[in-house]
Design a protein that fits this description.
There is one protein chain. The protein has three helices and 13 strands. The strands form four sheets. The chain has a five-stranded mixed β-sheet with strand order 4-7-11-3-6. A four-stranded antiparallel β-sheet has the order 5-9-8-10, covered by helices on one side. Strands 1-13 form a two-stranded antiparallel sheet. By secondary structure, the protein is an alpha+beta fold. A hairpin with a 5-residue loop joins β8 and β9. The protein has a single domain, classed as Pyruvoyl-Dependent Histidine Decarboxylase, subunit B (Pyruvoyl-Dependent Histidine Decarboxylase, Chain B, 3-Layer(bba) Sandwich).
C-alpha cells in the first residue's frame, strides 16, 4: 500500500515550496571541560557538554565556514531536551595527567572594493598544546586559509579566538569549544507544479 505522499507524487498532484540550501543564522559560543573515571563519550565528553550548557542537545558538527548573515547572540539556556544542535566544534580528549586543549578562531571576510561582508572563516584546534600555543597555531591556520584563496579580493577582520584546556586528574578528560547555531534561513526558490 502506498503512502499519501507517494500517491500524490505518482499522480503529479503534489505541489509545495522549493527551498534552497538552508543558511545558518544566529549562533552563540560556549566552552566546557569534563573528566571521568568511567569513559570519554558517556563520561568526560558529556560532562564537558554539561559545563558548556549544551548537554541536552544532540550535537552535529559542521566544517568551518560562516555565512555573511551569521549573527552572534548571547548564549541561551532555553534549549529543548533532545533537540539537534548543529555546531562548529573543537574537541580534544585526553587521559589522566595529559593536557587536552580545544580552540576555535574565526574572522570575517570583507570585499576590499565595496566593504561588504562576504562571510567568515573558522579554524579549530584539537590537541595537547597550552592555550597560548593553541592561539598561535589557530592564527597560523586562519592565515593559511586566508592567503590561499581569499587574500586578493577580501580583507580579514574582526578575528576572535576561544580556547579551553584541561589537565585531567581522572582517567579521561575532555575540553571543547563550540559555535552553536540556533536557527536558519531557508531561501524560497519557487513552488513545484
Amino acid at each position: 500500500m502506498k503512502t499519501v505522499t507517494e500517491s500524490l507524487l505518482i499522480n503529479k498532484k503534489f505541489t509545495g515550496l522549493i527551498t534552497g540550501m538552508r543558511i545558518p543564522k544566529d549562533y552563540f559560543i560556549t566552552s566546557g571541560i569534563g573528566e571521568s573515571d568511567i569513559a570519554v563519550h558517556a563520561g568526560s565528553y558529556h560532562l564537558a557538554l554539561k559545563d558548556a550548557g549544551i548537554e541536552r542537545c544532540n550535537i552535529i558538527t559542521y566544517s568551518s565556514i560562516l555565512p555573511a548573515i551569521a549573527n552572534r547572540i548571547e548564549k541561551t539556556d532555553e534549549l529543548t531536551h533532545g533537540a539537534v544542535m548543529e555546531t562548529i566544534t573543537a574537541c580534544s580528549n585526553s587521559t589522566k595527567g595529559k593536557r587536552a586543549t580545544a580552540g576555535i578562531v574565526f574572522g570575517w571576510l570583507y570585499n576590499k572594493m565595496t566593504g561588504k561582508k562576504y562571510g567568515g572563516l573558522v579554524c579549530e584546534y584539537n590537541g595537547d598544546y597550552t592555550e597560548d600555543e593553541t592561539k598561535k597555531s589557530l592564527m597560523m591556520s586562519l592565515n593559511e586559509l586566508y592567503v590561499n584563496g581569499f587574500e586578493e579580493e577580501y580583507e580579514l577582520k574582526d578575528i576572535e579566538i576561544h580556547t579551553k584546556s584541561i589537565l585531567p586528574n581522572k582517567k579521561f578528560g575532555t575540553a571543547l569549544v563550540a559555535l552553536c547555531f540556533v536557527n536558519y534561513v531557508y531561501p524560497i526558490l519557487g513552488v513545484s507544479k
